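Take a protein:
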Amino acid sequence: MFRTRCAIAAIATIFAFASAASAQQSLPPMGRPAAPAAPKAATPAAPKAATAASPRAASCHNGASFDRFLAELKQQAVAEGVSERTIAATAPYLIYDQGIVNRDRGQRVFGQLFTEFAGRMAAVYRMQNGQQHIKQYAAAFARAEKEYGVPPAVIAAFWGLESDFGANMGNLPTLKSLVSLAYDCRRSEMFAKETIAALKIIDRGDLHPDEMIGSWAGELGQTQFLPVHYVNYAVDYDGDGRRDLLRSGPDVIGSTANYIANGLKWRRGEPWLEEIKVPANLPWEQTDLSTQLPRSKWAQLGVTYPDGRPLPNDNLAASVLLPMGRTGPAFMAYPNFAAYTEWNNSLIYSTTAGYLASRIAGAAPMRKPAQPVAQLPFNELKELQQLLVRAGYNVGKVDGVLGQQSRIAVKAMQVKYGLPADSWPTAELLARMRGGGTAQAQPAGTVR
């Protein structure tokens, strides 16, 4: 649930290779349920001492060595209420691992079509597994919906995507990952806070140091909470006196609902994402998350449900979301969809999560595009971003990933050139920006 997921929207694409496997995500072995009674993950022997090879002094810490940095971090933790007993108990685990830092800095970005990603991540088996878990934990889901207003399908979708319901939570020592990333200068302040939060989790008795096994980025549990979110939103739903997001299904359900409701500001009783059918003459410049119109207005413009049924004639605000442009799938994204983009800011991941939740709740599979949707290769998408920057647009990071800022810039340039402004980068747009050169779109199905 790494919201910044390495601070880039790319992470969700990586999710396909590492989320259920991982992040930024991404994921393969298809595990089956492992809820409350799941055995404790095998834990490696505690390190003999905090004497890992000393890293080069980090410039962001005024050249302080790792040992000095760690000593100051421990003092800060004590000042925030962590007991000396916990500091002593966790000392063998607070060691530097350059491999974690290398992994953080060496993340690869994979370009992938939404239909491919969603086809795998929102597969029928995961939908059925989500429905099975809702039945298995019916009381906990009912309680969570009553207390927090979050539908069971929404919780189950995140549960399935993040860890396949506990089957893939990661296998690396959390404290070592956190403190290594805290010493590194890329996101030092963030991970220093996360390290202290992890110590607080131990200090209040929720987990023992050797139980803290998770992803390389320090996320914990079956819905992959960073420690700060664990501290702020984890709840004891099974009544055993601990907030155990590694093994307790009820705790996972209640805690995830609490975070979605209070951390992500879920709006009780409102929809999140619905598939729609758009007319060929829709004013494309009004599509995308940057524009919201009343549902009645979209109905006037010819938007319907996939089977032709009319949209409700009401004032509920909504955006038309076209993750692959005007020839791909189309969705009505409601204010609650913001919870998904906040959970993970990759549009591919967030749309997949919302779609999976709708499937678990009983929606039909989305329609397949009438014809393959062309996709620019990674290197050409990155070139397009560079050209957009030169034209004065802010695309965020020039990384070959179509994030929201890049989509807004693409739309603006499409308007300028008189092209359908559906925010989807095309070979024609790239050719125009090159000055009239030619470009070949990559056929659907190619992953880079």
About this structure: The two ends are 24 Å apart (CA to CA). Confidence is low (pLDDT under 50) at residues 3-53, 437-448. The CA atoms of residues 98 and 180 lie 7 Å apart. The first strand starts at residue 172 and ends at 173.
